[in-house]
Amino acid sequence: MKDAFLGKIVDHSAVVAVVGLGYVGLPLALRFAECGFKVVGIDTDAERVAQLARGETYIERYGRDRIKGVLKKTFFPTTAFSEISGVDAILICVPTPLGPKREPDLSYVRAAADAMLPYLHSGQLISLESTTYPGTTEEEIVPRVKSKNLIPGKNIFVCFSPEREDPGNEKFPTHAIPKVLGGTTAACLEAGQALYGAAIERVVAVSSTRTAEMVKLLENVHRAVNIGLANEMKIICDAMGIDVHEVIRAAATKPFGFVPYWPGPGLGGHCIPIDPFYLAWKARAYGVHTRFIELAGEINSNMPHWVLRQPLPRPRRCLQEKRRRPARVTGAGADAAARGRGRDDRVQRPARARDPPPGARRGSGAQRSSERGAAAQAGRGVGGYGSRFI
Known about the structure:
The chain has helices at 2-10, 25-34, 46-53, 64-70, 107-116, 136-146, 186-197, 209-240, 244-251, 275-284, 291-308, 315-324, 332-338, 365-369, 371-378; strands at residues 15-19, 38-42, 75-78, 89-92, 125-128, 157-160, 179-183, 203-205. The chain is α/β, with parallel strands linked by helices and 390 residues long. The protein folds into 2 domains: 2-207, NAD(P)-binding Rossmann-like Domain (Rossmann fold); 216-378, Orthogonal Bundle (N-(1-d-carboxylethyl)-l-norvaline Dehydrogenase, domain 2). α1 packs parallel to α7 (186-197) and α8 (209-240) packs across α11. The longest helix has 32 residues, at 209-240. The radius of gyration is 23 Å and the shape is globular. The two termini are 33 Å apart. Residues 315-342 and 354-390 have low confidence and may be disordered.
């Protein structure tokens, strides 16, 4: 079974399905298609699929020329999960947002797994790429597979390989970003390494799917906590009349032991504002309270309100600008970090937090009219991830 799968990878006869054609799934599908594999792109959004079928794009970074280059040659977008029956590998790239109480929402993962379940068969590989808490692959994917009398490592292969896309960052295209990979068994890992190795320059194997799931959370928790520290330093330095950016620039000249992170008016995107709470939620099941992670989340989520309370220089000039053009907050946190990249999405933009928390006072009329300027002033070199969507 494994040898047959590996043979299809070697001769590029394997058919790859990518479920979810957003900022993660679309570039992954295009990469495999450009490598000569037939790729079936599946998405429940009929309009999105129709755009791709016309050779159009809804993600600015991936232009029409690139889509048309593989369309109907090696790339076939569809809404039909029945196409799963004819593929050899299935890569699941669907959203994993938070629920109303900051609990993980795996509804998209479960819906995708249930939709493809009737079409699974022996010899296939399934790889979940959606960011999630440790144990998701074992708890959500493996039991569904086993319900079809398919045993991971024997007649089907199950892996987890977290996405690491940085939309709009031309320095790190999909194929150049190392791919972390964990398998349910050694055979699953070997099959996954062969598949991803055919399209990605470097595959980093780890001991299990749980380890691979934790790797992605650590990456994003690392950024969230350090951005939280930078934001708190901004507040402290402002109170003391010190330029925090000058402080960070000078500290960054130390050749060891320091990595610069920059303050900003808030976090945006699908990763940094969300993923740390996946880990915090799961840790509670083990009796662990993630105080450090939750404190960083509190600091970061309060930054938009702090920015709006700050006095602005030259308020008369700001008011004159407002008369010429209506002021509005445009999410300077994540979007300034992206420096114009990935504007296709507005998920989790800090600009959504325009209303102050209960009991907080808004600033003066001049201050309120200049929210856009305040966000821009505070957002120099910010530490957000950039607007992203699946």
